[in-house]
Structure formats: C-alpha cells, structure tokens
Q: What sequence folds into this?
C-alpha cells in the first residue's frame, strides 16, 4: 500500500480520536458543572450546561458520519475496523452522558426556589464525585488503550449502584417525614438516577475498550448492585401517625 | 456489476430488515407486557419481560456487526449507505426501549406487595397505550419507508409529554396526601418516566426514517412539552397541617 494512503488513513483515525477527546472533555465538564449547579443552586451554571449539550450532539453526528465514511472508503480490517466502531459507540455514550447532565441542569432550574436541606444534597454530590472520577478514568483508559484501567472502572460501577440505593432509601424517608420535602426530593431522586446512569455509560465505555483490544464484547454479568434499586420503604413515625399501618418494608 | 453480487447485496439488506422487524416485534411485546404486568400486578409476566430483553440485546449486536461488515465489504453509497446506518440507529433505539420495558418489569416485582390504588395506575396505563400506538406506527412507517406516517409520529410525541407532566403532578399530590403512597408512587413515577422515554425513542426512529429518505437529519426543535416536566407541587391540606407553610408551587 502506498505511503500516502496509509498516512491519510492514519490522519482519519487521528481526527476521530481528537473528536472523541473533545466530546469527552465536554461531557466531563457538563457532569461536573451540573452537580455543582445543584449543590450551589446556581441557575446560571445550569443554563450553561444546557447550552453545552448542543455542541456534544453536533460532535456525535460528526463522529458517526466520519466513521461510516471511513469504513466505506478504506474498508479497514481487524483492529482498525474495531477502532472505528468503537468511536461510534463511545460517542453515543458521551452524547447520552451529556443528555443526563442536561437533565440534571433542567431540574436545578425547576427547584431553585425550593427549600433544600443541604444534607440531602450532599449525598447526591458524593455520588456525583465518584461518577466523575469514573468518567475521567475511563476516558484516560480509552485514550491510552489501557484495558486494565478500563477493567478497574468496570468493577467500580457496583459501588455507585450501592450508593444510589442507599440514597434512594434516604430520600424516600425524608419524603415520608415531611410532605414539604416531597417535590424537592422527587427531583433529587431523578438527579441521583441520572448520575447513576452516567455511571452505566462509563461502564459501557469500559466494555468498548475491552472490545477494541480483543474484538470480544464482554459477556459476563456486570458487578451490579441493583437488587435494592427497586427497594421500597414504609412510612414510620410522625408522618404516618394518623394513618392506618402501611405496607411493610421490603 | 455482476448480477450475483447485486443479488447477494440485496440479500444482506433484506436480512437486516428482517432482523430489525424481529427486534421491533419483541420491543412492542415487551412494552405491552410490562404495562400489563404493572396494571395486573402480574409478577410472572414481569419475569418474562425481563428474560425477553436478552434476545433483544443479542439482536442489536448482530445488526450492528452485520451493518458494519456490509459497509466495509460493499461500500454502499447514498440510499444504500443510509439504509445501513439507519439499521444501526433503529436497532439502538429498540434496544433502549427493551431496557426501559425491563426496568418497568423490575419495578413491578418490587411493588407487588404494596397497596396500590388502581386509579393511580390507570393514568400510567393510558400513557402506555399512547406510546404503544406510537411504537407500532413508527415500526410500520419504517417498514414501509413512509415519511408522512413518520412525521405524524414525530408530531404526536408532545401529547405523551403533556400526559407525563399531568401524571407527574398527580403522583406528587398522592404522595403528599398520604405518606403510605410515597414508596409505591415513587416507583410509578419512574415507570411513567420510562414510558415517556420509550416515546422519545419512537421519535428518534421517526427522525431516522426522515434521514433515510432524504439524507438530512431533522434540525428543527421537537414538539416537546417538557417545560412542566420539571414542575414542582407544594403540599396542601391534611398532610401539611402540622408543618409550617411550604414553598409555593412553581
């Protein structure tokens, strides 16, 4: 194969890598800022997260188009084909992460006037910190084609699920204690769920890194802790005093 | 181009179409049965929805692989290239629809022991009926390459969002009226959100049909009614009597 074709093909792959890296940076920043906006009730910051999502959507379309054109023009094989498919997959996950961060930002705008016990928000913040670390690590692993680091990220997703579950129960308890907490806590529940799903997408990216290196999609079960994701909590104490006994907790 | 190549290429495309059609059938059945399981509290039916999702995941991987191989081997142009890209996109949306139906089914298992006022469930059922109709219509439109029918589906998504918003407020009100409703209504809120998101994926498919026909991705804003998606409700009446005044409703 003449040198100039190889080099032009390498340029195409390089360009894809740079676009993915740009998407990764934006998705990280959006996740970080959405969570900060929630804690600080910063509606201006929330607005800027919402605006940033447009760029992420445009980049995803661009990566998808460039990848498909590259496959059609160069008919890459083996590792090069996997690299191109991986670009499509990772850009899809990053685009979804942006949507989830945007959704959190929209909720910040919705609840900016509500009384918010900061203690409840801290649990969400802690979960968000963990997820941001996962996202950073998985993007580094993708850039460095580091399957070991990717596997570490993959394994740590269980911890985020466990945190989500305890937060879910805590938020339900707050709601039962005082009906004035219900509206705010409901939005916080959805924020927590969105952060947990950002974690799922980092796990997807970790699996794509595995596929990129080996050509195999991971078939084992994820280290999920989602059994109590579907927990129920029954009201106790003051809030339920005037009511007949509720159903028992699962 | 020799006939046998053209015919083999057509066979490839036909096979993709059949796989998408199989995925569509499974996604429709899962959406239908998840909602039935919720209304009837049928844990057996919920289990079968959870099992069906594995087949959907496998089909998505198969479609993705076949599509990429087809692009690499045949270097299709224009409409044929778009058909292949559309297969990847639609199979991705159908896989997500399956995930969302599975998530509803898991919640049916979680709340099967809870007291459930049927009236609350009916609102979710009504929303689900609308979404199922959308899904059926968009799959028919995809099979028939019918851009007009696809546009109709696209326009109707706003009605589902509006229904979700009113259900969201209604569920919050139930939670404020009686803390024993909180646990059950929270799961129902997530079920309603999942159904709304199934609606979003049918809208994605409608946009893919547009892209397939014209090569253009729709750029206009979706007819979203999601402003009040982020509504808040404040407690009134008995539940809040012993508490100081809550924040006002947005």
A:
């Amino acid at each position: 194969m003449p040198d100039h074709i190889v080099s032009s093909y390498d340029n195409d792959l390089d360009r894809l890598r740079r676009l993915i890296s740009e998407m990764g940076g934006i998705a990280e920043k959006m996740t970080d800022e959405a969570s900060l906006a929630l804690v600080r009730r910063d509606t201006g910051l929330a607005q800027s997260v919402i605006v940033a999502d447009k760029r992420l959507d445009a980049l995803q379309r661009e990566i998808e188009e460039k990848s498909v054109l590259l496959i059609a023009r160069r008919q890459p094989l083996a590792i090069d084909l996997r690299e191109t498919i991986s670009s499509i997959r990772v850009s899809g996950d990053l685009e979804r992460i942006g949507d989830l961060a945007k959704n959190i930002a929209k909720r910040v705008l919705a609840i900016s006037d509500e009384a918010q016990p900061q203690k409840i928000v801290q649990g969400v913040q802690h979960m968000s910190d963990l997820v941001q670390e996962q996202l950073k690590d998985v993007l580094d692993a993708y850039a460095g084609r580091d399957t070991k680091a990717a596997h570490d990220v993959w394994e740590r997703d269980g911890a985020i699920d466990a945190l989500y579950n305890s937060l879910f129960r805590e938020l339900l308890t707050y709601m039962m204690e005082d009906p004035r907490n219900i509206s705010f806590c409901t939005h916080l529940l959805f924020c927590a769920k969105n952060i947990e799903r950002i974690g799922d997408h980092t796990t997807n990216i970790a699996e794509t890194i595995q596929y990129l290196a080996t050509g195999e999609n991971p078939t084992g079960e994820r280290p999920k802790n989602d059994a109590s994701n579907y927990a129920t909590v029954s009201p106790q104490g003051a809030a339920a005093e005037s009511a007949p006994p509720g159903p028992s907790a699962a």
Observations:
- Residues 122 and 208 of chain A are 32 Å apart (CA to CA).
